[in-house]
TrEMBL record:
<keyword id="KW-0808">Transferase</keyword>
<comment type="function">
    <text>Catalyzes a salvage reaction resulting in the formation of AMP, that is energically less costly than de novo synthesis.</text>
</comment>
<keyword id="KW-0328">Glycosyltransferase</keyword>
<comment type="subunit">
    <text>Homodimer.</text>
</comment>
<comment type="similarity">
    <text>Belongs to the purine/pyrimidine phosphoribosyltransferase family.</text>
</comment>
<dbReference type="GO" id="GO:0006166">
    <property type="term" value="P:purine ribonucleoside salvage"/>
</dbReference>
<dbReference type="GO" id="GO:0005737">
    <property type="term" value="C:cytoplasm"/>
</dbReference>
<dbReference type="Pfam" id="PF00156">
    <property type="entry name" value="Pribosyltran"/>
</dbReference>
<keyword id="KW-0963">Cytoplasm</keyword>
<dbReference type="InterPro" id="IPR005764">
    <property type="entry name" value="Ade_phspho_trans"/>
</dbReference>
<dbReference type="GO" id="GO:0044209">
    <property type="term" value="P:AMP salvage"/>
</dbReference>
<dbReference type="GO" id="GO:0003999">
    <property type="term" value="F:adenine phosphoribosyltransferase activity"/>
</dbReference>
<dbReference type="InterPro" id="IPR050120">
    <property type="entry name" value="Adenine_PRTase"/>
</dbReference>
<dbReference type="InterPro" id="IPR000836">
    <property type="entry name" value="PRTase_dom"/>
</dbReference>
<comment type="pathway">
    <text>Purine metabolism; AMP biosynthesis via salvage pathway; AMP from adenine: step 1/1.</text>
</comment>
<protein>
    <recommendedName>
        <fullName>Adenine phosphoribosyltransferase</fullName>
        <ecNumber>2.4.2.7</ecNumber>
    </recommendedName>
</protein>
<dbReference type="GO" id="GO:0006168">
    <property type="term" value="P:adenine salvage"/>
</dbReference>
Amino acid sequence: MPRKTEIKDYIRTIVDFPHEGIMFRDVTTLFADPRGFRMAIDQLLHPYAGVRFDKVVGLEARGFILGGAVAHQLSAGFVPIRKKGKLPGAVISEEYQLEYGEAVVEIHDDAIEAGEKVLLVDDLLATGGTAEAGIKLVERLGGQIIGCAFVIDLPELGGRKRLEAMDMDVHALCAFEGL
Ligand SMILES: O=P(O)(O)OC[C@H]1O[C@H](OP(=O)(O)OP(=O)(O)O)[C@H](O)[C@@H]1O
Ligand SMILES: Nc1ncnc2[nH]cnc12
C-alpha cells in the first residue's frame, strides 16, 4: 500500500452499498486514522483562519463527528441537526427529497440566536438536499451561514451548484466522480 498523502487516500469505497450501482464513499477509515482525522479537521478549518464563528452546525450522523472537532478548534458551540423525532426540545423542521420519497430534519428552536455566525459541516455533499434543508433551518432562526464545509463532494449529483445558487460558500476537501 503506497503511503497515504491526501484525504482521498484514507477514504474507502464500498461498491453496491446500500444499493446496487452505488459507490459508497466510506469516511470511517478516514476517521479511524489519527493522521487522516487530524488532516481532515485541519483542512476543513483552513479557509476560515481568522474568522470568528458562534456556532458549528453538524448534520446527522457523520457531520456530528466532524462538527464537534471543528467546533472545539474554533472555540464555537456545536449544534446538531437531526432526523425527525430525535431532538427532545421544541424544534423547527424542514422536509427534503431523498432518492425515493422524503425525509425531515430538525433543529432546536433556541439553538441559534439571530445574527450568530454559523459554519455548516457534513461529511459528504451529493444532491445537496440535506445541506439545503440545514441551511434553511439555520436561516429561519436568524443565523448567518458563513460557510458550508464537506470532506467529499460528488459533483455529478449537483449539490455544490445547488448551494452556490443559494449564495453559499462551499468548501470540500476532495471530489469523487461517479455515483
Ligand atoms: O447531498 P445529499 O444528497 O442530501 O446527501 C448527503 C447526505 O447523505 C449522507 O447522509 P445520510 O442521509 O445517508 O444519513 P446518515 O449520515 O444518518 O447515514 C451524508 O452523510 C449527507 O448527510
Ligand atoms: N456515494 C455516497 N457515498 C456515501 N454517502 C453518500 N450519500 C449519498 N451518496 C453517497
